[in-house]
Structures are given as C-alpha cells and as structure tokens.
Amino acid sequence: MELIRIRGVEKQYKNGVTAICNLDLSIKKGDFVFIIGSSGSGKSTLIKLLHREEKPNKGRIIIGGIDVAKLKNKKVYKLRRKLGVVFQDFKLLPRMTVYENVAFALEIFGLSKDEIRKKTIKALELVGLKNKVKQFPDQLSGGEQQRVAIARAIVNGPKLLLCDEPTGNLDPDTSFGIMKVLEVINKMGTTVVMATHDKEIVDKMKKRVILLEDGKLIKDYEKGTYSHEVA
Amino acid sequence: MRLLRTLGRNIRDAIKSVFRNFSLSMASISCITITLILVGLAILTSYNVDNFTKIIEQDFSVFVYLDKDIDEEEIKEIEEKLNKNPNILEYDFDSKEEIAQSMMETSEVLKNIMGKWEEDENPLNDVFRLKLKEIRNIKTTISEIEKFENISYVDYGEKIVNNYISAFDIIEKILIVVVALFIIVTAFLIANTIKLTIFSRRKEIEIMRLVGASNFNIELPFIIEGLILGIFGAIIPIIVVIYGYYTFYIKYNEHLFSPFMKLVVPEPFIYIVALILLGIGMIVGMFGSLRAVRKYLKI
Asked: What are B35-48's pLDDT values in tens digits?
C-alpha cells in the first residue's frame, strides 16, 4: 500500500533557487528508503516538503490521505501527529532531562501521567537508553542524544519517520548503532525515509535508494548501494 | 479531562516561565501595577466627582419669578408648560403671600414693615421652585422657560455651581482619556515582555510544532502567562485602592472642601473597584500576550 505519493512537485525558494524539479515518487507502507545525492541536490528540501516545513510551488504530496501541499498552516499539526522527524542536530531541549524531552511530545496531547510514563519508557527502551532517563542532553554522547531524538520522534507511534542526515554528526560506529535502531523501528511497521550522504551506511543496508541531482530524480534502485549510484 | 490536564500543565509551565524570566516579568508586573494604580485613582475620582454632581443636583433649585400682575389662569398655564418639560424633575409653587408670611416669621423688623402692606402693595413675586433632572442641561431648560409668557425672570441660586459642574465634567473626560492611554501602553509593554519570552523559548516552540502541537497548544501557555502577569500586577493596586480610600475617607470625615462634596461610602464601592482593577489586569495581560504570540509565532 502506498503511504507517500508525490506527483509533479516543484519547489523554488524565494531567492530563486530551484530545489526540487518535477518530482514523481511513490513510497510504500513499511518501506525503508534512502534519499541520497550531493549537497544542494534537494534531499533536505524533500524531507522538509514531507513534514510541511516547506510548501511546494507545484504538484501534489499525499501522505496517508492528507494532501500536504494544500494543508493550511493552522492544520499542519494534524500531519505532524502522524509522523516523526529526526535531524542532524538532534534538536533536544538542553534544560530538560532525557525523560522530559521524550515525554514533551506526549504532554501537549494532554495524556495522563501514567500513559505518558508508559509510552516514554517504552520508546527509551527501544533506543537503548532506559538507564539514562535522568541525565541531561549535554551529559550524553552524540549518538545517545540522537537516540533520544529518535525516541521522541516515535513515542507517538507514527506511521512515518523522516530522518534528515541523522548520522551526519556521528562517527561510523555510532552511526551504525543508530541505523540498527532505525531498522528495528522499520521492522515494527514504521515507514522510514532518510536523507543521507553516508556512503558506508547506504552500501551496508541494501535498501531502496533514490538518487537526486539538482532537484531531479536520477535513479531509483530497489536494493541499491551508494557507490554505483553516484558513479 | 484531557483539556483539564493540558490546562493544568500549561498553568504550571506559565508560572515557571514567569519566575524563570524574573526580571522581565517584574518589568511587566510593575508596569501593570503603575497603570492599575492610576486607573484605580481615576475610577475613584471620577465616581466621586459624579457623586458630587448628583448631590448638587439634589439640592439645587431654579427659581422662576412670575410677573406681578399675573392671574390664576396664567399661573395654571405656566404650570402645564412646566409639566411638559422633560428636564424638570419636580416643582413647588410659592405665592407671594406665602413668601411674605415666611419672611415675617424670620424677624420682628420685617414683620413690622411687611405687616402694614395692603394686599396689592406686596412687592414680591409668585415663584416656581424647580428641581432639574440633569443639571448639565440647565442652560437649555432656562432659556426655554424664559420664553414662557408672564415670566419676570429666572434665577438659580449659586451660579458658581454651574462652573463646578462643568469643571467636573472636564475632569471626568480627561480621566477617561488618560486611563485609556495607560491601558494601551501597558498592553504594548506586555506584548513586548511576551515577545522576549517567546524569543527565549523559540527552540521549544519549534519542537512543539514539530511534534504536532496545534496553534492552541502553543498559544495557551503564553496567554496564561499574560494572565498571571496581569493578576500579579493587580495585587498592589488593589491594596492601595482599598487601604488608601479607607484612610482618605476616615481622615476627611466624609467630606472634602465643601459640604456638598461628600465622598462615596467605601463599602461595597472599593471592592467593586478592586474587582474592576483585577479584571482590567487580566484582560490587558491576556490580550497583550495574545497579540505578541500571534505576531511573533506567525501562526
């Protein structure tokens, strides 16, 4: 079943840069998709379009029945509740503990304390940080911080997890740790879309690979590797 | 239930935020405090001034002197016309005989002189004593009465009263303008404070939006924060109004400068004023912060 359908999408920034050009793409439910390409190829823009941080100038983006391109500012939260986003710079709140950072995503929905506790602990368990709930982000390593961010992104049980260079700031070993977590999440049924330029990871994972260049879709492989895509 | 929990969490967060940004919050609170003290003084003053006007109105009479050769028919005609005038609350008629009688009762000398008058020698006039509904409209009413036939002249005791009343009127109007200006300035200041709070919390807000907070979820804590600033800001003005007015009232022993300037009895008057101040504080705090949230969150 199709979760994401992108048809004829074009995105031009106000400064005149065309980031995405006439893009057609379908992503199935339960897929694990890498979006690769050099800097400025439009990977990040695509992720931003998917969580409606940016609006396309043309075309349609349908995610789980929501027409993202037409979504009004006021209604964006409806989309955001169905997906999780992970960034290169983690975006954790430094004055909150690990637990509070994750629980934060649930608190705004007005869940009861028990429910919040259960879900938060479960998410932290999944990323392997159950024993660090009381620490603050700056007491953790980069990899651990990213795990907290992933826990926050999935604590709500989203259908889709978007990752924008989640391993960009991490060393190779730590990156693999993160990828393992993402793989587990994917196996549990969450669709994962990840923008990256980490060659090793893409080569090892053998997942669907989409290559963008200057905002255009160049190649789309079922079980691709980075090396032969870019070369 | 869900809404209640959200509300509880937001109140907690808002109080935290007020203390976390203590210096900024203090700036807003002191600004609300100063405004509300002035607003409170303005309300007390204008209400009292209004009260003076009412007291004057109650004691105040207009005398309509009739022509000397007037007959009963013509007096009746004037009476009918007075009945029709909307600004006349009530009137009394004193005939010249009655006036002469009461004057003679006041002193022996007068009695000796006036007692010797023949009936048609009485030099006094028949008089209508009028009470007006609105003293502000006295000039129109008098010029209307002066147009009646058989009226000798119209007089109203202390003309100075009229000056008082127009002065009171001006005071009230100035107070209203000043209060309105202060309220607007305060709302702007609160908007600024909240703007700075928003600035210091913009990362948090960004993440809130990312994880699916609706605009309402994001706005609510700031609105509550504004509300709390408003409530804190109202505390000192309420104390000032209640104690200040009591002290003033006791010291000036119910009246000020002149006997007709009676102060309004403190209870329940000052408690109503206190509630009004609290209400203004809350509303100004809320709207100031809503303005900032709408403007700076671009939601």
From this structure: 888 888 888 888 88
